[in-house]
């Protein structure tokens, strides 16, 4: 509720007119409502018109014969006198504007109720400057003032409200806050009594089910691992027995052959040293037969049959678990130090400022980079800066939408110059790469290709090199699906190797 209140002098003028005209109903200067909220503060713009000022001066000089207490209060008569009420009715859309020289000067009913409720005290404080009761509140300066302060004093032109209205709004606000706190307390109490209690009851059941699930999964995994372990151990045992049998057979055979050769050689040596010349000349046939017998023994050779077949310990289950344990570890994206070695980057490629992205150049740059023995000059290759000869290493290459790329490893001794296969990744014995070209994926080493069945085209290719087991694995990082695994006896340190002839590839950290 907002209304523009007339100044006190003007109200006095209205009051004087009302007293002089008995036919008019009694008026009140203030109508007090307990239902008012803080937003309903009455904003009073106390300004004096010339007529109001004359009326006020007339009051002060005693020109008015009415001896009502309100005139004594406004004229600075001092003391605590009974306050009168004046009511100004506004016709139409305008709101009734009410004013009082004292917070207790409301209607008779309101005054009684407020006094009983303790809103207003019987003894009000007085203005130091005007010695009038502080029955108004200045919203601009946030302090109590008297009516004279609002009209001609320091708070002239400020936003003021009757003290009763201000107190009522504050009390109503406190009531609202208390109600909100009470509702919040009820909600908290309901949450404690109902929600938390129900959660506590469900907690034991949920935790018990979670434990059972963990135990069941671990039990199933343990059972599968134990069965796989038993199968692999039996397979290794059979393979060991086979190789041992082959070794025994070879040992027996070649021992017998060695004994036969020794006897033949001894006989020939005896013939050579003890046979007379005439008899030796006629023993050519016999000597030829013994030589033929010795040559029939043959030459021993090492074969794969004499070696343990490493596939006897190969298990897709174990390899998957091993790879998952490594790939889901904290070093799944490898070392942050892994970048491309600028010295090795081909002139056909562009290297980013962070040394992590290779971009294929469709046009050869006008100015070739300076000569470097480590740089590839014909093939669009580049090598990583991290040498690997121990431990476990993994890194991820973002291949994006590139339709032609290679990712893998190679020896540092890989040829860098020329357009031959010696410098072409995957076409020599010094490099191992996963190749993608024209929609096909394959593993390449020493010029041999192994086609790969890739269901979904990966946006990223992960590489895992486990030096202790001499294993190189290519995988898809998002699903940890293994694309290809190769086990090889690496005889020298390895470097990450990449090639691209379409768009870009990036080492991720």
Task: Identify the notable features of this structure and list them briefly.
509 residues, alpha+beta, seven-stranded antiparallel beta sheet
Structure in words:
By secondary structure, this protein is α+β, with helices and mostly antiparallel strands. It has nine helices and 16 strands. It has helices at residues 8-20, 50-61, 69-74, 108-117, 147-151, 163-274, 277-281, 284-295, 316-327; strands at 136-138, 143-145, 160-162, 349-351, 357-360, 381-383, 392-398, 404-411, 431-437, 440-445, 448-452, 460-466, 471-476, 481-487, 494-500, 504-508. Strand 1 and strand 2 (143-145) form a beta hairpin. Helix 1 crosses helix 2 and helix 6 runs antiparallel to helix 8. The two termini are 64 Å apart.
What order do the helices and strands come in, and which of them pair?
Blueprint: H1 8-20, H2 50-61, H3 69-74, H4 108-117, E1 136-138, E2 143-145, H5 147-151, E3 160-162, H6 163-274, H7 277-281, H8 284-295, H9 316-327, E4 349-351, E5 357-360, E6 381-383, E7 392-398, E8 404-411, E9 431-437, E10 440-445, E11 448-452, E12 460-466, E13 471-476, E14 481-487, E15 494-500, E16 504-508
Antiparallel strand pairs: 1-2, 1-3, 4-5, 5-16, 6-15, 7-12, 7-16, 8-9, 8-15, 9-10, 10-11, 12-13, 13-14
Helix pairs in contact: 1-2, 6-8
């Amino acid at each position: 509720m907002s209304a523009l209140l007339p100044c006190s002098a003007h109200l006095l003028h209205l009051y004087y007119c009302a007293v002089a005209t008995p036919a008019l109903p009694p008026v009140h200067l203030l109508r007090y409502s307990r239902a008012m909220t803080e937003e309903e503060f009455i904003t009073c713009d106390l300004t004096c018109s010339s007529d109001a000022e004359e009326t006020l001066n007339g009051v002060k000089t005693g020109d008015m014969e009415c001896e009502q207490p309100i005139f004594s209060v406004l004229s600075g008569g001092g003391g605590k006198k009974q306050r009168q009420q004046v009511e100004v009715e506004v016709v139409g859309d305008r709101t009734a504007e009410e004013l009082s020289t004292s917070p207790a000067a409301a209607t008779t009913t309101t005054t009684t109720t407020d006094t009983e409720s303790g809103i207003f005290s019987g003894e009000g404080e007085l203005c130091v400057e005007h010695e009038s009761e502080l029955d108004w509140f200045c919203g601009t300066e946030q302090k109590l003032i008297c009516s004279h302060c609002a009209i001609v004093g320091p708070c002239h032109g400020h936003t003021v409200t009757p003290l009763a209205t201000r107190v009522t709004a504050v009390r109503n606000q406190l009531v609202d806050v208390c109600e909100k706190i009470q509702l919040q307390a009820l909600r908290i109490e309901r949450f404690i009594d109902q929600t938390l209690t129900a959660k506590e009851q469900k907690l034991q059941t949920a935790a018990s089910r979670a434990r059972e699930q963990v135990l069941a999964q671990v039990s199933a995994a343990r059972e599968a691992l134990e069965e796989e372990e038993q199968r692999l151990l039996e397979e290794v045992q059979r393979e060991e027995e086979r190789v041992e049998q082959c070794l025994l057979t070879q040992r027996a055979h070649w021992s017998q052959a060695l004994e036969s050769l020794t006897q033949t050689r001894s006989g020939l040596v005896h013939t050579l040293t003890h046979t007379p010349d005439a008899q030796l000349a006629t023993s050519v046939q016999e000597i030829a037969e013994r030589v033929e017998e010795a040559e029939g023994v043959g030459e021993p050779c090492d074969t794969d049959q004499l070696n343990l077949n490493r596939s006897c310990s190969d298990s897709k289950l174990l390899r998957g678990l091993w790879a998952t344990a490594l790939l889901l570890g904290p070093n799944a994206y490898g070392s942050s130090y892994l970048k491309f070695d600028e010295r090795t980057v081909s002139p056909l490629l562009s290297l980013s400022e962070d040394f992590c992205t290779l971009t294929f150049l469709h046009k050869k740059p006008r100015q070739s980079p300076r000569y470097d023995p480590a740089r590839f000059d014909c093939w669009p290759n580049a090598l990583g800066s991290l040498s690997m000869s121990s431990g476990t290493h993994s890194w991820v290459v973002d291949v994006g939408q590139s339709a032609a790329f290679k990712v893998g490893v190679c020896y540092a001794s890989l040829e860098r110059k020329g357009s031959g296969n010696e410098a072409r990744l995957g076409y020599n014995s010094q490099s191992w790469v996963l190749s993608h070209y024209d929609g096909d994926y394959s593993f390449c080493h020493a010029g041999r290709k192994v086609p790969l069945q890739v269901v979904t085209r990966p946006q990223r290719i992960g590489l895992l090199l486990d030096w202790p087991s001499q294993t190189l694995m290519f995988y898809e990082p998002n699903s940890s699906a293994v694309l290809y695994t190769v086990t090889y006896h690496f005889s020298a340190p390895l470097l990450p190797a990449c090639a691209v002839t379409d768009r870009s590839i990036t080492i991720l950290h």
